[in-house]
Write a structure and sequence with these properties.
Largest sheet: none
Shape: elongated
Strand content: under 5%
Radius of gyration: 24 Å
Number of strands: 0
Number of helices: 6
Distance between the termini: 63 Å
Helix content: over 70%
Order of helices and strands: HHHHHH
Structural class: mainly alpha
Length: 151
């Protein structure tokens, strides 16, 4: 599923680049792609630091920065799209860096995947090797022994 998406996106990017190149010229197209990359990298840096500050504020308030982490993922994907040369990927990447459209992307993700996320069975995997299992058979709880002293 992902491979056809990459092929189609690459072909669309080439088509758009050639069309823009024919309309405004090859050098102007290259300059425009570089300018969008520079603007995107500046926005990426600014939005990344902004989300980091929001996450630190959430942690300082005793909250889990879950939403900020999701925003960080959208910013990361936007950064990757901005590194890819082309107008379509740059447009989607820049949309991911704008706070209101980033919120839209996250809401769309949750609306399509909410059932999978919230109805999945919680499973836990705890790895214990044989030596730990054999030595702990008679114990009900794992106990850590140690010494403590104050100077």
């Amino acid at each position: 599923m992902i491979f056809p998406l990459f092929v189609v996106m690459t072909l669309l990017e080439i088509y758009v680049l050639v069309s823009v190149g024919e309309a405004i010229g090859g050098l102007s197209t290259v300059i425009l792609v570089v300018i969008t990359a520079l603007i995107g990298s500046t926005l990426l840096k600014q939005q990344g630091w902004s989300i980091m500050a929001k996450a630190q504020q959430s942690i300082a308030n005793g909250q889990t920065p879950a939403f900020e982490m999701l925003e960080g993922v959208v910013i990361l994907v936007s950064g990757v799209l901005l590194l890819t040369p082309g107008f379509i990927t740059d447009t989607v990447g820049l949309l991911g860096l704008i706070p209101w459209s980033r919120m839209y992307f996250i809401n769309q993700f949750f609306s399509k995947n909410a059932e999978k996320i919230f109805t999945s069975k919680n499973t836990t995997f705890i790895h214990k090797n044989k030596q730990q299992t054999n030595s702990n058979k008679g114990k009900k709880k794992d106990t850590i022994e140690g010494e403590f002293w104050e100077d």
